[in-house]
Amino acid sequence: MINFVALCSILVAGLFGACTTPTENAAVTVAAASVRDDPTAQAKPQTQPESKPQSQSDAEIAPAEAEDNQLEFVDPDIIPVDDPELDALLDKLEHTADDLRNFTARIVYRKTDGLLNRKETRTGNIIYISEPVQGLPGNQIRKFAIIFDILVVNEQRRQRNKHYIFDGRWLAEIDDRNKQFQAREIVPPGRVLDPLKLGEGPFPLPLGQKKNEVLKRFVVDWADIPPSGMLAGLENVIGIVLVPRPGSDEAGEFNRVDVYYDKKTMLPVGVDALHRNGDRKTVRLKEMAHNIELDAQTLSKVNIAPPQDDEWVVIVEPWQGN
User: Fold this and answer.
1) What per-residue string of b and e applies to 95-125 under the rule 16 or more CB within 10 Å gives b?
2) Which side of the chain, N or C, has fewer Cβ within a 10 Å radius?
3) What are the CA-CA distances from residue 217 to residues 92, 202, 209, 248 (Å)?
4) CA distances (Å), 117 to each of 1, 122, 276, in order?
5) Which of 298, 304, 270, 288 is nearest to 168 (CA)?
6) Beta strand segments in the chain, E
7) CA terminus-to-terminus distance, the chain
8) What is the model's pTM?
9) Which of 170, 159, 149 has the alpha carbon at shortest distance from 45?
10) DSSP class of residue 15?
11) Chain centroid to CA 4
């Protein structure tokens, strides 16, 4: 199974969506029971084995000296941005997705092997949904589905249908051609993962992220539109480049990540991630629509439901503690 969450961060952390939950943990604790606790409830699948700086107090300052000793508090956790326009952009991105309920788009995903220069490109559709967590006001469950239909390897084009779903806890891969369904619980029961939160998802994506959390992890600057490659045709976008700070979790994986946002919606439409091993992952979103009414057929593609047909091989792997 390829890393589905790595496709999205894009929203790709990876790649899309927001993280505006008040919970600061790596996963959001869910108080109420979830219908996703067991995606096989209606089937009997084959299952694999299972500080603040101290300052002199006012009482210690003589009255005559008080006015001359007004101390200005500087929060050591606040990282300044020299460029006012860039600073304003990061402020805006922090709140851009506050009201983002869903979006759909055409997606092009390309992975380039840094050693062999082998290119693998997949095209298809992406569906993103953000829903409130019952019992925890202000918290959201973020779900994705990617339905690929075309695979291009070194300019050879093939019809290849692959369906990936992530519902906050379960990651599923559906292979219609080989009639295989595989679901893995990648988050402990009672919790959900936000794949777009810094440090949780595979792609760092400043959208709905606290500005200072972004600046603690990355040096941020403006990014130009690439003169060639998959993102060369981007129009009406604004780009930033994220360079991991030494010692950050991202420094061990990425050299840099370029993210491009649509100027009107401020939603990401392109991500170009260069890994330390030389691999490159690029995502391009087209024909994006957001906060729309999703029909039943679209919603069903984000639902992890094992096939009932006996011809299918169904594998379900519950959480195993790692």
Assistant:
1) ebbeebebbbbebbbbbbeeeeeebebbbbb
2) C
3) 18, 14, 12, 6
4) 22, 16, 15
5) 304
6) 27-29, 46-47, 102-112, 119-133, 136-153, 156-166, 170-175, 180-185, 191-193, 218-222, 237-244, 254-262, 268-275, 280-290, 313-317
7) 17
8) 0.75
9) 170
10) B
11) 11
Q: Which amino acid is at 195?
A: P
CB burial of 7-35 (b: ≥16 within 10 Å; e: otherwise) equals bbbbbbbbbbbbbbbebeeebbebeeebe
pLDDT tens for each residue of 234-245: 999 999 999 999
Structure tokens at 21: 């939950």
Taking only the tens place, the pLDDT of each residue in 56-110 is 434 343 444 444 444 443 454 678 888 999 999 999 998 887 888 999 999 999 9
Sequence-distant (6+) residues with CB within 8 A of 204 are 9, 13, 14, 198, 214, 217, 218, 242, 244, 250, 254, 257
Averaged confidence pLDDT in the chain: 78
C-beta separation of 209 from 198 below 8 A: yes
Of the candidates 178, 141, 147, the one whose C-alpha atom is nearest the C-alpha of residue 164 is: 147
Containing 85, the helix (H) or strand (E) segment is helix 84-95
Task: Return the closest-CA partner of residue 77 out of 54, 107, 52.
Answer: 52
Strand residues in 10-88 grouped as ranges (E)? 27-29, 46-47
Amino acid at 179: K
Backbone angles phi, psi at 243, to 5 degrees: -110, 115
Buried b (16+ CB within 10 A) or exposed e, 235-274: eebbbbbbebeeebebeeebebbbbbbbeeeebbbbbbbb
Distances, alpha carbon 18 to alpha carbons 1, 4, 205, 219, 267, in Å: 25, 18, 9, 20, 10
Q: What is the CATH number of domain 4-42+82-317?
A: 2.50.20.10
Structure tokens at 135: 């019992």
